[in-house]
Amino acid sequence: IIILLVLPNILGSSGANYAKNLLRAAILLQYIPRLYKFLPLFAGQSSTGFIFESAWANFFINLFTFTLSGHIVGSGWYLFGLQRVNQCLRDACHNSSIQDCKKFLDCGHGNGGAEYSQDQTWKSWSGNQQASDCFEKDKFSYGIYEQAVKLTTENSIITRYVYSLFWGFQQISTLAGNQTPSYFVGEVLFTMAIIGVGLLLFAFLIGNMQNFLQALVKRRLDMSLRRRDVEQWMRHRRLPEQLR
């Protein structure tokens, strides 16, 4: 409902930044009850007992949880990277003497370029060095979002999504050990959250996967021993081949 009905109207009036914040709040409000129902699956149990009896089913539900976590982390990284670009442009607008330059920070329905082509204020803003520096390396302290800024220039949605998903997998697996955040508090807290999520996943999911695989191997071994005992019993009783 929000994507199809609410956002198209908001994009034309208040701009993409307001629409982005609204969408983020809606998604977070949806995730809270979902996580509440999903946490019992985290441990593989519910109030009535085990959710899945099959070891492979438990293995795949844990693998899916790991994939979902990578998706959330990668999506948050891309979203927060866009916010840092927006903040950089707002700082450039504040430090410049250009009037009403905040209306140029997003494209609305995508026709902003054609609408502002004859505007002298737009020409001054598009040539502003501080605004251009927001998309240059080492000009603004993006920290862990530096690759996200470069990713916004890609036209393919698939490329942007797949790379964000890869980034989420990589940071969860390495506990964000290869990332150095800037002094921005929100970025530091996001990095700390990645480390906490990574530790939680390794403590629960990887341990559960190992237990499930061990249970599967043990079940196969038990069946093999039981089959051998039955065969020895039938040979000892000298049962006919057809009866065996």
UniProtKB/TrEMBL annotation:
Pfam family, one: Ion_trans
Ribosomal protein listed as a keyword: no
Domain of life according to the entry: Eukaryota
Localisation per UniProt entry: Membrane
Record's keyword annotation contains Aminoacyl-tRNA synthetase: no
Keywords: cAMP, cAMP-binding, Ion channel, Ion transport, Membrane, Nucleotide-binding, Transmembrane, Transmembrane helix, Transport
Segments passing through the bilayer: 59-80, 183-206
One GO MF term attached to the UniProt entry: monoatomic ion channel activity
Residue span, Ion transport domain: 15-218
Protein name: Ion transport domain-containing protein
Organism: Citrus sinensis (Sweet orange)
Lineage of the organism: Eukaryota, Viridiplantae, Streptophyta, Embryophyta, Tracheophyta
